[in-house]
Design goal:
The protein is α/β, with parallel strands linked by helices and 479 residues long. It has helices at 40-59, 62-78, 80-91, 95-115, 154-165, 179-191, 206-215, 228-241, 263-275, 292-308, 327-342, 394-402, 417-426, 465-468; strands spanning 4-5, 7-9, 12-14, 18-24, 27-37, 122-125, 131-139, 142-146, 169-173, 199-201, 221-225, 244-248, 253-257, 285-291, 346-349, 352-353, 361-362, 365-370, 385-391, 406-407, 409-413, 431-434, 450-451, 454-455, 469-477. It is built from 14 helices and 25 strands. The protein has a 7-stranded mixed beta sheet with strand order 15-18-19-14-13-21-22, with helices on both faces. Strands 10-9-8-11-12-24 form a 6-stranded mixed beta sheet, with helices on both faces. Strands 1-5-4 form a 3-stranded mixed beta sheet, with helices on one face.
């Protein structure tokens, strides 16, 4: 029988109301495992346990928190191949990328082990004689974390680690498409000695478990990464309940390629940004905005290299692009491929592929001849699809890049310092890349966007304190 994996509530492994079958998108006959599917009552128990445990966790001091996060980092590193294999098996990311993501999670926990000892504060001179003023940061309390399937260990890590570092307790709901990796991480956190109730895992559907996290009165803040419609619903609910909220949502990220760009550099950046991780990154380069003089040579070379990418099973050492994560995602991708043709694009690639096993395989797609008014250039596809838009000059490229409801990441390939500097200043995005893929970020600096891509304080680095802490101003009379 397939093993059933349980929720973690108040330090105990608990069954849910139901179970979810976790399937391998590279081989649909491979059942990764059965995972507990919780309900609102499970969230209520987890939130109550977190609320009970949080005060002692914070008041115990920063050193135990730093030590725990450091132990978690060490244990993740020791099990990187095991966790990476699980990640590749359930999400479809190729094994080298999956192991690299796992190691990044360890780096994130180790970074925040240090941040636990560097919680900022201020001593400020008062305008009144004999009065001292202190500005202190304290934990929010209980934080609900709702994470996506595309980075099933890195994103939970960059939410859990700062939450714990700053003295909060956590209720985590991972994506129900990829519970296995989150469950392994929960095991490590538990085995590393996290006090009962400080970290809780409640797996299950977003419509039940996620909504219960947003609604629970003991949960004071919610951090969510996922789709725009879900993020907007969470924002409305959080406002109703007066909760602190942090949302990371979609992107339709532009990569500008100017005539003076180094062609191999530009092609490599766009190939990586558009198609690696099967294009299933919110920072993916889904709009390639190319100046007319380099357009034809760029498209020809990018199409050649994209067509040569080996699509296959995630655990096959020869594979460069793994499967799409689910049937629903593949169906959506293929509908956009058909739409691109209907809208007048020259569609290169994009078809479903047969593999040695039954899986969700798709060839990378270029939509050549797109315009920025087409749906395929405006709506997030979240797959290995990129629209190519020809422009006359830098000014038009910048205008097209900014003409979107999103604003997460933007990039430019150019040899011009002037144009690079101007693009960094004027691109309406939270992150800007020069001669680099739009996807791929460091863990010690802020992550987040503008417009419809993000809402609330930034994630990662020292900026994480803005969400996971609250500010207290204390006055003392010394006279």
């Amino acid at each position: 029988m397939t093993q059933s994996h349980l929720n973690l509530i108040a330090g105990e492994w608990c069954r849910g109301a139901d179970v979810t079958r976790n399937l391998n998108p590279s081989d649909l006959t491979d059942v990764v495992g059965l995972y507990a599917a919780g309900e609102a009552a499970d969230v209520a128990r987890a939130a109550a346990a977190a609320a009970e445990a949080q005060r002692a966790w914070f008041e115990g001091g920063s050193q135990p928190r730093a030590d725990l996060l450091d132990r978690i980092a060490t244990m993740i590193e020791a099990r990187a191949t095991e966790i990476g294999t699980m990640l590749a098996r359930e999400e479809g990311k190729i094994l080298p990328e999956a192991i690299a993501e796992t190691k990044r999670a360890a780096q994130i926990f180790r970074f925040f082990a240090g941040e636990a000892l560097r919680i900022p504060g201020q001593a400020v001179a008062s305008v009144r004689p004999s009065v001292d003023v202190e500005v202190m940061r304290e934990p929010v309390g209980v934080v609900g974390l709702i994470t996506p399937w595309n980075f099933p260990i890195a994103i939970p890590a960059w939410k859990i680690a700062p939450a714990l570092a700053y003295g909060n307790a956590v209720v985590l709901k991972p994506a129900d498409l990829t519970p296995g990796t989150a469950h392994l991480l929960a095991q490590i956190i538990h085995e590393a000695g996290c006090p009962a109730g400080v970290f809780n895992l409640v797996m299950g559907a977003g419509s039940t478990v996620g909504q219960a996290i947003v609604d629970d009165p003991l949960i004071g803040a919610v951090s969510f990464t996922g789709s725009v419609p879900t993020g907007r619903r969470i924002a409305r609910s959080a406002a109703e309940h007066m909760k602190k909220v942090q949302l990371e949502m979609g992107g339709k990220n532009p990569m500008v390629v100017l005539d003076d760009a180094d062609l191999p550099t530009a092609v490599a950046a766009c190939l990586n940004g558009a198609f690696f991780s099967t294009g299933q990154r919110c920072t993916a380069s889904s709009r390639l905005i190319v100046q007319a003089g380099i357009h034809d040579a760029f498209v020809a070379e990018l199409a050649r290299q994209a067509g040569a990418l080996r699509v296959g099973a995630a655990l096959d050492s020869e594979t460069q692009i793994g499967p799409v994560a689910s049937a629903a995602q593949l169906d959506g991708n293929l509908s956009y491929v058909a739409l691109a043709a209907e809208e007048g694009c020259d569609v290169q690639g994009g078809e479903r592929l047969n593999g040695p096993t039954e899986g969700y395989f798709q060839r990378p797609a270029l939509f050549v001849g797109a315009t920025n008014t087409m749906r395929v250039a405006r709506e997030e596809i979240f797959g290995p699809c990129a629209a190519v838009i020809k422009v006359a000059d830098f000014d038009e490229a910048l205008a097209v890049a900014n003409d979107t409801e999103f604003g997460l990441s933007a990039g430019i390939c150019t040899a011009s310092l002037k144009h690079a500097r101007e693009f960094k200043r004027r691109a309406q995005a939270g992150m800007v890349m020069v001669n680099l893929p739009t996807a791929g970020v460091d863990y010690h600096v802020p992550f987040g966007g503008r417009k419809g891509s993000s809402y609330g304080p930034r994630e990662q680095g020292s900026y994480a304190a803005e969400f996971y802490t609250t500010v207290k101003t204390a006055y003392s009379f010394a006279g």
